[in-house]
Structures are given as C-alpha cells and as structure tokens.
C-alpha cells in the first residue's frame, strides 16, 4: 500500500515524504564521504534493522538520490553511493548537525556516540568541500533558455 503524501502541493512536504522517515538522513550522512557497502552501513547504524535499511535504500534509489552497484553476483552484494541530487541533501544534513550542536549541545550525551557523530559530520563536511554540490538548472529553465536562443 502506497503511503499518502503529507501535502502534494508543498515542496517541503513532498521532500519529507522521501527523506523524512526515521534513519533516512543518517544514511545520507554516512554516504556523503563516498560509496559504502550494505554491511558497512549496518555497522555504522547498529540499531537499525536490516529490512529497514534495505527499505530506506530502495526508496532513496527510486527517487534518484542513491545509486546501487552490484559487486558480487553470488551472493548478490551491492555498494551504494549518492547521486548529485543526493549529495545536495548533504547541505541539509550538515545544517541539522550544526543546529543540534548549537541548540542541543548541552543536552547531548557525552562520550563515544557523540564523538562518533562529530566524526561523521566532519567526514561529510570534508567530502562536500572536496567535491562541492553543483546546482543543476531545472529542465524547464534549460528548455526555455534553449528555445530563446533558437529564436534570437
């Protein structure tokens, strides 16, 4: 049964339909530095059930945010990486991390998990610096620009 959209007229609601489920932005965060195998993602997100990870990856792939490449046929094994639209979400993930540090810093549990999260955010930030997100013009604007050029 397909999930009903929060609001088909709102881009924020439509985006949340795709990335608003629990764990999804953490998958994006962990894929920002580069390609990861399914089992690597499981290790980084140990409290996430494998079927939930599989479901979230399928949704991200269906929406063109994640690319899956098989590296073994028997048994089938896949590696996952972000597409350019998926990498654009890295800016949002980093903004959430910065907001959390600023507003929840004193309420975060000190220790290993907090340190691990900071390491994840640092790797994600470095990945975006090494390969900045390129804004892609929408197809509508691009087609209109081409049409204008043909008329001139």
Walk me through the topology.
Blueprint: H1 11-19, H2 24-31, E1 36-37, H3 38-44, H4 50-62, E2 66-72, E3 77-82, H5 84-104, H6 112-130, H7 139-151
Antiparallel strand pairs: 1-3, 2-3
Helix pairs in contact: 2-5, 5-6
Keywords: DNA-binding, Transcription, Transcription regulation
Organism: Bradyrhizobium frederickii
Domain HTH hxlR-type: 10-108
Bulk shape:
globular
* Averaged pLDDT: 81
CATH class: Mainly Alpha
Instruction: Output the radius of gyration.
Output: 18 Å
**Individual helix count:** 7
Count up the domains: 1
Q: Main beta sheet, described?
A: 3 strands, antiparallel
| Percent range for β-strand residues | 5-15%
CATH architecture assignment name: Orthogonal Bundle
Instruction: Predict the CATH topology.
Output: Arc Repressor Mutant, subunit A
**SSE string, helix = H, strand = E?**
HHEHHEEHHH
Helix content: 55-70%
Organism: Bradyrhizobium frederickii
Domain HTH hxlR-type: 10-108
Protein name: Transcriptional regulator
Keywords: DNA-binding, Transcription, Transcription regulation
Which key phrases capture this entry?
single chain; 152 residues; 59% helix; disordered C terminus; HTH_HxlR; DNA binding; transcription
Structure overview:
By secondary structure, this protein is mainly alpha-helical. The chain has one domain (12-132): Orthogonal Bundle (Arc Repressor Mutant, subunit A). Helix content is 59%, strand content 10%. It is built from 7 helices and 3 strands, in the order H-H-E-H-H-E-E-H-H-H. The protein has helices at residues 11-19, 24-31, 38-44, 50-62, 84-104, 112-130, 139-151; strands at 36-37, 66-72, 77-82. The chain has a 3-stranded antiparallel sheet with strand order 1-3-2. Helix 2 (24-31) packs across helix 5 and helix 5 packs across helix 6. The longest helix has 21 residues, at 84-104. It is globular and about 50 Å long. It starts with 10 loop residues before the first helix and ends with a helix. The relative contact order is 0.12.
């Amino acid at each position: 049964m397909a999930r009903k959209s929060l609001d088909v007229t709102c881009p924020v609601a439509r985006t949340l339909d795709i990335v608003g489920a629990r764990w999804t932005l953490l998958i994006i965060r962990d894929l920002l530095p580069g390609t990861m195998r399914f089992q690597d993602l499981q290790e980084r997100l140990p409290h996430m059930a494998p079927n939930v990870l599989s479901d979230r990856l399928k949704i991200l792939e269906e929406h063109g945010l994640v690319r899956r490449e098989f590296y073994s046929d028997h048994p089938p094994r896949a590696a996952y990486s972000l597409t350019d639209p998926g990498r654009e979400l890295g800016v949002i993930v980093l903004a959430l991390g910065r907001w959390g540090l600023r507003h929840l810093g004193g309420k975060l549990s000190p220790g290993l998990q907090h340190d691990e999260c900071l390491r994840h955010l640092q790797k994600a930030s470095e990945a975006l610096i090494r390969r900045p997100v390129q804004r892609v013009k929408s197809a509508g604007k691009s087609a209109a620009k081409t049409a204008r050029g043909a008329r001139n």
